[in-house]
Amino acid sequence: MKGRRLAFPGFFLLLALVSLACSVPGCGESEPPPTPTPMGDTLSFLIPAYTMKMEPGDTIPGTGLHYSGRENGAYKVTIDGREATKRIGDSFIWSGVMAPGVYANYNLRLTTAVFGVLPVAGPVEIIVFNPEPIEMPLTADVTAVTPHFDNIVVNYQIPAGRQIPGTTLIYEGVFTQGQGQQASQLAQLSGLSGYPYLALGDSLVWTGQLRDNVAVRYSLRTTAISEESLSLAGTAELWISSE
Question: H or E segment at 142?
Answer without folding.
Answer: helix 140-143
